[in-house]
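Fold Annotation — chain and its backbone

Encoding — discrete vocabulary of local shapes
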Amino acid sequence: MRKPESLAGGARLAGLLVGLGLLLGGCAAPLPEADTSPAAEAAFEARTAQLEALDSWRLVARLGLASGEEYWSAQLNWRVQEGQHVLDLSGPMGRGGGRLTLSESGRALLVTRSGERFQAQDPDALVARVLGESIPVSGMVYWVRGLLHPEASYQLDIDADGRPLEIHQSGWTIEYNEFEEIDGLAMPVTMVLEREGVELRARIGRWQLGGDPS
């Protein structure tokens, strides 16, 4: 028997909320208030300079994407070496996974688990066309480290230690909920990206800064 639409929608919404709760893994302590002092801005700029000086890093994360009443999850392994980004998605959005490679020039190559190959100059458009979901890869190259995209206008809130609290760029709002100190740098652990009914959540379980990310 088909469920009444209201009950089915309620069940989907309940599942979505449970999934988002599991992704974040509990409630983090509230972050400090925004700080607009010159000292806070200097701390943010110093952190930015340190991270931009690293030509290799790696993270392992869980992603959850909510769009309307639908919810999907994926495992992400992202490594960077000498300007090249390699993103391995395991079962993204229930579509089988694949590998996205971004060259230093910005060109994107996506190879699916079934061996299909897709190329484009715009990684966001490529991912949206192949996976059918909006994932702001070009912005996440920066946002996942708590940095600003250098080619887009922005609004930014930071705390007294120069950690980003919220970034508005390219139509997205990026909110940072938790940080972990890695090699003396505060790195994001949980973050939420929102735009026009789409919500992408990330929980980063492992950071590696510098060295061989392979």
